[in-house]
Amino acid sequence: GAVVSQHPSRVICKSGTSVKIECRSLDFQATTMFWYRQFPKQSLMLMATSNEGSKATYEQGVEKDKFLINHASLTLSTLTVTSAHPEDSSFYICSARRGAGGQGEQFFGPGTRLTVL
Amino acid sequence: KQEVTQIPAALSVPEGENLVLNCSFTDSAIYNLQWFRQDPGKGLTSLLLIQSSQREQTSGRLNASLDKSSGRSTLYIAASQPGDSATYLCAVDNAGNMLTFGGGTRLMVKP
User: Fold this and answer.
1) Residues B39, A40, A10, CA angle at the centre, nearest 5°?
2) pLDDT tens by residue, B12-55
3) Phi and psi (nearest 5°) for A87?
4) Closest residue to A106, CB basis, from B42, B43, B99
5) HSE-up of residue B7 (Cα within 13 Å, Cβ side)
6) Which end of chain B is more exposed for a tag (fewer CB within 10 A), N or C?
7) In angstroms, what separates the C-alpha of B43 from chain A's closest C-alpha?
8) Predicted confidence (pLDDT) at residue A101 exceeds the cutoff of 60
């Protein structure tokens, strides 16, 4: 199978702190990983596309200086929410694309629930 | 820009019924379409993936069809069970680079 893990699964932090979320592909290499955000009762919205060894591509409306993405290896991407505020509270889900090119299937992590007090 | 719509937004059925969830998309130039299940507060579970060259995929009681030309996909669930209660999301991959998700259908199967 193709397994993607996320850590932590849940985090509660104070306003103004930074939070790092890890996304790992456990049994395959992923040149491309994606970060999604899901607000309550809404669908997933793509935040950014993370390519190994290069800068992430952010979707319109997503602040790159606030949501720092590092894809340092073929199995790990990290999302850091800097100076988090209550409006950043959300469910963050990553996915990893298996296979080269743009047609590989995406496999999703279990998600990280961020609560900013 | 791809837009994905799911109808109905919510559905409540008695156990044992067969049901159909609908997904439509505006740009037919897709690589594939996936159906996911999401339980409350949980991540996504991939149910079925249909490549653009395929017409349908089946897994157990689930059958998904794809009509690219009309921009539609359906997820058919046979003999529904209370354990099928969840939100079902369809997502379209049409740029080889990102998935566009529909708003989901919240399904409740009553015992």
Assistant:
1) 70
2) 999 999 999 999 999 998 888 999 999 887 788 889 999 889 99
3) -70, -10
4) B99
5) 4
6) N
7) 4
8) no
Are B42 and A102 an interchain contact pair (Cβ–Cβ within 8 Å)? no
Measured in degrees and rounded to the nearest 5, phi and psi for residue A68 equal -85, 130
Give the pLDDT score at A37.
94
Residue B40, token pair as written in the block: 């409350």
Residues of A in contact with B31 (CB under 8 A): 102-103
Are B50 and B32 in contact by the 8 Å Cβ rule? The answer is yes
Which residue on chain A is closest to B103 by alpha carbon?
Answer: A43
Chain A residue with minimum CA distance to B96: A102
The CA distances from residue A6 to A35, A82, B65, in Å, are 11, 18, 31
